[in-house]
Design goal:
Elements lengths: L6 E6 L5 E8 L2 E15 L6 E9 L4 E2 L1
Antiparallel strand pairs: 1-2, 2-3, 3-4, 4-5
């Protein structure tokens, strides 16, 4: 499956940990209803910390 660009609007709480709230996919705005899963990956080459979320959207779809 080819990669798609997704615009994500996140909330940063008092700890500075951002969580996705809504996103735009294929021109459609989708509200994040529930975070189903979350995980962190450490990059080997760039040593960057990357945070991933699996989100249930207002359209009923689940995206990671």
């Amino acid at each position: 499956m080819p990669e798609e660009k997704i615009n994500v609007f996140a909330y940063s709480g008092f700890r500075g940990e951002e969580t996705p709230r809504k996103f735009v996919l294929r021109g459609k705005r989708i509200e994040g209803v529930e975070i189903q899963d979350r995980w962190v990956e450490e990059g080997l080459g760039d040593r960057a910390t990357k945070r991933f979320f699996e989100v249930k959207g207002s359209d009923g779809g689940i995206r990671a």
